[in-house]
From TrEMBL:
Gene Ontology biological process terms, A to Z: tRNA N2-guanine methylation
Gene (name only): Trmt1l
Reactions catalysed: guanosine(27) in tRNA(Tyr) + 2 S-adenosyl-L-methionine = N(2)-dimethylguanosine(27) in tRNA(Tyr) + 2 S-adenosyl-L-homocysteine + 2 H(+)
Sequence ranges assigned to domain C2H2-type in this UniProt record: 143-163
Gene3D superfamilies associated with the record: N2,N2-dimethylguanosine tRNA methyltransferase, C-terminal domain, Vaccinia Virus protein VP39
The protein, known as: tRNA (guanine(27)-N(2))-dimethyltransferase
UniProt keyword annotation of Repeat present: no
Natural source organism: Prunella fulvescens
Recorded GO CC terms: nucleolus
Length: 709
């Protein structure tokens, strides 16, 4: 009787006779292992919270009483207390115990009650009394989301709130994919994508989708659309696909102009990308170089509706293939992928990268910036532009190692990210020219004046002489620091930005249009009221004569002859004509009008102040880096002089804004040192004392503020 059970093995169709005693032992073993799994942190996958939850987590008090199996004629123990703490009793007493000691002090979350538990399921340090080890029975709660045990009720409430704020659900703590019923569909720019419930908090097994990065995706799409207008078709790569939203937008709107490849090294992300492609009626061509051998979904034909999906490391896919457009958007810094990106990118292609490690780039973690970017930075009033130039400097060095130069097309630094878009120029000459634009910055910590260090390798006896301010002579100690290395060239290409603006209007990208208009004005260093949209022919002329570029024309035919003697002659002629007309590069960095405001004075409105600076003969514009920033070629002393002239005293706020005449007849065209401004104020105070009028003392902001501000 012990050998009568047989099973058929599916793989080999062989009848195998197994002793019955062994099968019964295996069944018992599986029954014993199931409760162990329920005690672990790995939760079962379901559309709602896990069924194998702890017995202290119930919806109703009646469910808790069912566990106790209350009967009037029998004594029953409490299911949540040990025998030595609460002895078995009759139903009426056990009902009051469950209600008062467990249910009333529970923590509620989405219809469930996490009751207090007195069982010995929380590891507690033993209490040694002589030779006996007494186990301390501590009351605690079991978290419904992560199965953690927490002692205090207030700590449990805070623990649940942290889960809610992070958007974490039970799918975060499992090792298998969440069911399709837990997905939700998000629509952006006419593209539907499935995302996980915890899409805003990325983990190792989840796909990340951040709605706040919509503006970033629109800017990258506009840059790709401009490149697609220059040459067709182009091969573009989204190296970190996640949900595949960016690559799907490229393929859905640009169609036959692009051949899209979406890559991700996470198996769950690749599966989600394939499902999102089918959701948007796109065919998928798989190229997975691991266990799968080139499986193809659909008919496998390469057309405008086909997206290639790869599952490999981003460095590997960029080493194996060449692309015209590469976008890097990893979690944090992207410096680990720059060498691979510039290795095989095609000539005159575009590399865009999004850096989200803003804590290091914005000088909150300076040691991390030094480690990742090899750059020394401090917190300044222009810290966002400092971050963009630090990223471009790292990009320039990575491109130069591959004998390639760069032309910066766009650099944006906002609250959540730093976006840099560069065009690749092959050859050692463009590489050398780009490397020469990486310099150190001399920054005065007292007045925040700044200037790039002069070219050359010779040491200067007094580097403070390069600063326009005289803080080193009037203040004790060392007043300046050396920042960098940083990119010292232009951050924008005016013609490319204008073409991006046209693409944004054509595809209805409303969020990108205001920012692109600001960027065009910032690139030209002009105010918004002088902004105008040119025709496509004028755009090519603007790109040729506006910002200094390496190619004489933006058409594809001119790109084909780049590097030849004829194109270099045209380039030299264009550069000479550009220098003769005007200096097109925008001034580096900007000043914050609040940072340099005068205490006790009402400063003018920002737009009026821009007009005052423009009337004084300086180039001026607003900047996207700072809503109260002013980009101008005026020195800081002249900036403060104009600001003081058109500021009004706080006690005379009712009078109209107008110029305040300064004694000593200081002209705007003259260089006004900081000491002269202080002397002017002292003279005003002395006149007020002589006339018997109570003087209102005010001082400028920069002598009383430290660099740490």
């Amino acid at each position: 009787d012990g050998l009568v059970v047989s099973e058929k093995v599916k793989s080999n169709n062989i009848d195998v006779k197994i002793p019955k005693s062994e099968l019964e032992a295996e069944d018992k073993g599986t029954e014993e292992e199931r409760p162990r799994e329920s005690d672990s942190n790995i939760l079962d996958v379901s559309s709602h919270y896990p069924r194998d939850k702890h017995i202290s987590i119930q919806r109703h008090l009646a469910d808790l009483e069912k566990l106790a199996d209350l009967r009037e004629d029998e004594r029953k123990p409490c299911p949540l207390c040990p025998e030595e703490k609460f002895k078995a009793c009759y139903s009426h007493k056990l009902h009051r115990h469950l209600q008062n000691l467990h249910w009333k002090v529970s923590v509620e979350f989405e219809g469930y009650r996490m009751c207090i538990c007195h069982l010995s399921c929380r590891p507690v340090k033993p209490n040694l009394v002589g030779d006996q080890t007494l186990s301390k029975m501590g009351a605690h709660y079991h978290c419904i989301i992560c199965s953690a045990t927490i002692v205090r009720r207030t700590d449990m409430i805070g623990h649940i709130n942290r889960h809610v704020n992070k958007g974490e659900t039970e799918s975060r703590f499992i090792t298998v994919r969440a069911p399709k019923s837990s997905y939700k569909v998000v629509k952006e720019s006419a593209t539907d994508v499935q995302v996980l419930p915890n899409h805003s908090t990325p983990q190792k097994t989840d796909s990340y989708f951040n709605p706040k990065m919509k503006l970033n995706r629109q800017l990258i799409f506009c840059a790709l659309a401009v490149l697609a207008g220059e040459r067709k078709p182009i091969e573009c790569l989204d190296a970190f696909g996640a949900t595949g939203i960016m690559g799907l937008q490229w393929a859905k709107h640009l169609r036959s102009s692009v051949k899209v490849t979406i890559n991700d090294c996470n198996e769950n992300s690749v599966t989600m990308i394939k499902e999102n492609c089918h959701l948007n009626k796109m065919k998928v061509k798989l190229n997975i170089r691991e266990e799968d051998n080139g499986e193809t979904v659909g008919n496998g034909e390469e057309n405008s509706d086909t997206i290639e999906v790869t599952k490999m490391d981003a460095n590997v896919v960029m080493h194996l293939r060449s692309f015209d457009f590469i976008h890097l958007d990893p979690f944090g810094t992207s410096v680990n992928y720059l060498d691979s990106a510039f290795r095989n990118v095609r000539n005159l292609g575009i590399v865009s990268l999004t850096s989200t490690d803003i804590s290091s780039l914005y000088a909150k973690a300076q040691h991390v910036a030094l480690r990742h970017y090899g750059c020394n930075i401090v917190r300044t009033e222009y810290y966002k532009e400092l971050a963009a130039r630090a990223v471009i400097a790292a990009v320039t060095r990575a491109a130069a190692r591959c004998n390639k130069g760069i032309e910066v097309l766009l650099a944006v630094a906002l609250e959540h990210f730093v976006l840099v878009v560069v065009r690749v120029l092959r050859g050692p000459t463009p590489a050398d020219d780009s490397a020469k634009k990486v310099r150190y910055l001399i920054h005065c910590q007292w007045c925040e004046e700044r200037v790039f260090q002069k070219e050359g390798n010779m040491l200067e006896e007094n580097p403070y002489q390069q600063l326009p301010c005289d803080c080193h002579g009037s203040m004790p100690g060392k007043t300046a620091v050396l920042l960098g290395p940083l990119w010292s060239g232009a951050l924008f290409n005016t013609g490319f930005l204008r073409r991006m603006l046209l693409e944004a209007v054509q595809y209805g990208l409303d969020e990108a249009q205001p920012l692109l208009k600001t960027l065009v004005c910032e690139a030209e260093c002009t105010t918004l009221k002088h902004f105008s949209t040119h025709s496509p022919g004028e755009e090519n002329k603007q790109e040729e004569c506006g910002v200094y570029i390496r190619t004489p024309n933006t058409s594809a035919e001119s790109y084909l002859v780049h590097g030849k003697r004829k194109s270099e002659e045209v380039l030299r002629g264009t550069a000479k004509r550009q220098r003769a007309e005007h200096s097109a590069e925008h001034p580096p960095f900007y000043y914050n009008i609040h940072r340099h405001s005068i205490k006790g004075m009402n400063m003018p409105k920002l737009n009026k102040f821009l007009n005052y600076l423009s009337e004084a003969g300086y180039r001026v514009s607003r900047t996207h880096f700072d809503p109260m920033g002013v980009r101008t070629n005026a020195p800081l002393a002249q900036f403060k002089t104009v600001l003081m002239k058109y500021s009004t005293p706080t006690y005379g706020g009712a009078q109209a804004e107008g110029p305040v005449h300064l004694p000593g007849e200081i002209q705007l065209g003259e260089e006004v040192p900081a000491a002269a401004v202080i002397k002017v104020k002292e003279a005003e105070l002395a006149e007020d004392d002589k006339s018997g009028v109570a003087a209102t003392v005010f001082t400028e902001s920069y002598p009383t503020h430290c660099a740490a501000e």
